[in-house]
Design brief:
With 210 residues, this protein is α+β, with helices and mostly antiparallel strands. Helices cover 29% and strands 27% of the residues.
Length: 210
């Protein structure tokens, strides 16, 4: 199920100049930009840029970026779930994961995260997908933000809501291991009820084991 990736863009006017939110970005273009040194949530900036270029080259992979001049200062990724995760077990072509979202610390506070999600959903092809994201508190920048776990969770939920993602219950062990962790999802308008059922079965695997 490979949809054409329709490019969309939006300009955010901020006190430090315009920030452009755009994508999906093709791999060659992504490789040509500078990657901000503050993007260190998942791995070192150069390695993370390399990983994003690989994702952008996947048939289902989508990278939406935020850039300040020619520097990438934020991004969001969409791709099929990791084969080792529960979410890939249904082999659902219509289920993709919002795998990572990150904004460089000095550019936070300008609604960059929310707008990365809004631009992502401007593409009509997203109505053919169930988009999931798994939020784990150990990935959150609690130290840098000065927020506690619950405050940060609220910020994450609000940001995801901007892209139409909502909280969904699940018995997945890692998510269930801490009450701040959560599963969020957006079910596209053209998703059939059988797919929703399949998704429900992935969300609850231990339902009949009590």
């Amino acid at each position: 199920m490979n949809h054409p990736k329709t490019y969309n863009a939006k300009e955010l006017k901020t006190p430090i100049g315009s920030i452009f939110i755009e994508g999906p970005i093709p791999p060659d273009k992504l490789a040509g930009y500078e990657f901000h040194e503050g993007l260190v949530a998942f791995r070192q900036p150069k390695q993370q840029q390399k990983a994003l270029v690989e994702i952008a080259g996947l048939p289902e992979g989508r990278i939406i970026i935020a850039r300040h001049r020619e520097v990438i200062i934020g991004y969001v990724t969409y791709l099929y779930p990791d084969p080792l995760e529960r979410w890939s077990e249904g082999n659902m072509e219509e289920l993709i994961e919002l795998g990572a979202i990150e904004v460089a610390p000095e550019f936070r506070g300008f609604s960059v995260g929310k707008n990365l999600l809004r631009v992502s959903m401007m593409d009509d092809a997203m109505e053919d997908y169930i988009i999931i994201t798994t939020e784990y508190y150990w990935h959150w920048d609690l130290k840098g933000s000065g927020l506690n776990v619950w405050e940060y969770r609220k910020v994450m939920e609000k940001m995801m809501n901007a892209g139409g993602l909502e909280w969904y219950a699940t018995d997945e062990p890692e998510i269930s291991s801490h009450p701040a962790n959560c599963l969020m999802a957006r079910i596209g308008k053209r998703i059939h009820s059988e797919s929703v059922q399949k998704f429900d079965q992935l969300r609850f695997k231990n339902r009949f084991m009590y």
